[in-house]
Amino acid sequence: MPELPEVETVVRELNRALPGRRVKGVDVFRADALGAVAPETFAASMTGRAFGAVGRRGKFLLFELAPGGFLVAHLRMTGKFILAGPLPAPGAHHRVWFRLEDGQTLVFQDMRCFGTLAFVQRLEESPPLAELGVDPYAAEFTQAWLAAALKQSRAPLKHWLMDQHNIAGLGNIYACEVLFRTGISPRRRACRVTAEEARGLHRSIRAVLDQATRKNGTTISDFQRVDEKFGEFQRYLRVYGREGEPCPACGTAIRRIRQQQRSTFFCGTCQS
DNA sequence: AGCGGAACCTGTCGGC
DNA sequence: TGCCGACAGGTTCCGC
Predict the structure, then answer these.
(1) Do A124 and A148 reside in the same domain of the chain?
(2) What total number of domains does chain A contain?
């Protein structure tokens, strides 16, 4: 489901509601998200801790806890956090309830059970975080860094953009949109991007993510915000999901191809 | 290093 | 109506 703008939207909403609330108990209805960790172990780690600031690194949600520790969550395709009342109606896809002392319940729901939840004492203990590339909003994400990093890889540019070891946060939708706005083919090898194109790519990445975040992300089928409202960026998508429709710039029919088992949407005329 | 394929799991949609 | 395959915003692992 979510890429950086959707995760950022969830982070902002959780930050408005969650800090200061203490976990009274944890109910695990389905433990897939916990990996090899036993539900009782996870519940014991979380119970009695209070939520602090909520942050984000790439597509990972980081919940600061007091006294000490972090909840590290990844929503993958269909994970959601919903803040509900004291006795939520049990949903078919509810996986974990964090019952809070003030009577509210933080619900983690996940239809496809790909999402992950982990308690760690220190963020350095989380292997997936250590592997992440640069966040597009980090200071290190500069035009110069991008131009140099692209030179190192012969992978198709769209694949490179989606690889979280390079840049952490772009997924299928925004990779397609960024490439369209930069006028580069998704099939171009990363190392064949010129320095000038890299500058344009850098601008487009920031611009697309900024705009999508302002619109609270993209809801195609099932992204939902904490308050169960939807994102609005789907109205601004120029190529994603628009196979056969005219390119907004030149009118050529938008094409769809498969790359790395994923659909790529692009304009064969505007992008080369 | 790159790439195809399969896997994790569930739901929806379109075609026959 | 029903079955079947394709597809879905993500990530990882395996083999060539």
Answers:
(1) no
(2) 2
pLDDT, tens only, A28-78: 999 999 999 999 999 999 999 999 999 999 999 999 999 999 999 999 999
Domain that holds residue A217: 143-266
User: Residue A226 — pLDDT band, cuts 50, 70, 90?
Assistant: low
> Is residue A95 one of the residues assigned to a domain?
yes
**Catalytic positions of A:** 2-3, 59, 262
* pTM score: 0.96
**Residue A148 shares a structural domain with residue A124:** no
Considering the domain architecture, whether residues A120 and A172 belong to the same structural domain is answered as no
Instruction: Provide the CATH number for the domain around residue A116.
Output: 3.20.190.10
Chain B: positions less than 7 Å from a protein CB are 1-11
Is the minimum distance from the CB of A259 to strand B below 7 Å?
yes
> Is residue A176, in this structure, part of any structural domain at all?
yes
Residue nearest to nucleotide C12 (CA to C1'): A128
Contact A231, A210 (CB under 8 A): no
Query: Nearest nucleotide to A171 by CA–C1' distance?
Result: C9
